[in-house]
Specification:
Length: 299
């Protein structure tokens, strides 16, 4: 992922308000030309682990600070995690750091911890999440990997087992205060809780590590259980950039889009999209890189 210029280039272009023409290109590195990106590692198991994810290279992967500087950003670490959220989500200094950023990044880990850190017990925005939402509403980009992408739907889900999803066990709604998607006493069942809703206008739920972790079964079940209009399954080293209801795929592998009616069918049907392909979420139309409409197919 460190060397995926297409993905990081798309994020940079979205942050500076440019088009997609410069994906993969080298970008300016002068300090006054760098877009600022606020980095949340709140899916980590502790503030220490969050800090390490930002500051320290590990097993061949760059820490987020180094990674984003490499791709032309000026990163800002937001120190919030499961063990300090009660203060950090209301801290004026943290909130002020988001005043001038062009992008926000949410790390991978446990999406229930993202929810716990940035939502109240009732599922409302904390002041810090309100500040993130202001970045979004003024045209900034909100991105994330793994848990950081999964939290962006109206609902987020996870845990459970493949056997449980194959058996069609409904997702069990978990309170924000539980800070976990594990369903006590039902290890095969997946859990769900309120997400951040940045994809709410699409009425979509998001899954990641899609083909790598055989999630072709659980995404259709989540679409049915959550009554989402769409399911978006993203492979590793791949991204879908969504602007005004239009999705554009970049990266090495695929994104699968499943419409609600397809999720209720007996066969697994959807739109597998590769780099350069697009999807119109308003019209439910997939197109290849040459602009030709694509039909759904079995996956």
């Amino acid at each position: 992922m460190d060397d995926n210029k297409a993905v990081w280039g798309a994020l940079y272009d979205a942050a500076v308000g440019g088009g997609l023409s410069s994906i993969g290109a080298e970008h300016p590195t002068k300090a006054n030309q760098r877009p600022q990106i606020a980095v949340f590692c709140s899916a980590a198991p502790s503030l220490r682990a969050a800090s390490l994810a930002y500051h320290v290279d590990d097993d061949g992967f760059s820490g987020y600070g180094k990674l984003f500087r490499k791709y032309g950003f000026e990163p800002l670490f937001i120190p919030i995690a499961i063990d300090n959220y009660q203060r950090a989500a209301y801290d004026d200094e943290n909130i002020e750091q988001l005043a001038n950023v062009q992008a926000v990044w949410l790390n991978g880990g446990d999406q229930a911890k993202h929810a716990r850190c940035l939502l109240t017990d009732e599922g409302e925005d904390t002041p810090l999440l309100q500040a993130v939402r202001e970045v979004y509403h003024r045209g900034g980009v909100i991105g994330g990997s793994s848990a950081g992408a999964a939290i962006q739907g109206t609902w987020t889900y996870g845990e459970g087992t493949l056997n449980g999803y194959r058996a069609g066990l409904e997702l069990v709604r978990k309170p924000i205060a539980s800070a976990t998607l594990v369903v006590e006493g039902q290890p095969d069942a997946g859990g769900c809780m309120k997400g951040f809703g940045f994809a709410s206008e699409l009425n979509a739920c998001v899954d990641t590590h899609f083909r790598e972790r055989s999630r072709e079964v659980r995404l259709p079940l989540a679409v049915r259980s959550l009554n989402s209009r769409y399911g978006i399954g993203v492979d590793e080293n791949t991204a879908i950039l969504i602007r005004a209801g239009q999705g554009h795929v970049v990266g090495d592998n695929q994104v699968l889009i499943i419409a609600n009616e397809q999720a209720h069918g007996q066969l697994g049907m959807g739109y597998p999209l590769s780099a350069g392909d697009t999807f119109d979420f308003d019209l439910c139309v997939a197109r290849d890189a040459q602009g030709r409409a694509r039909e759904p197919r079995a996956f």
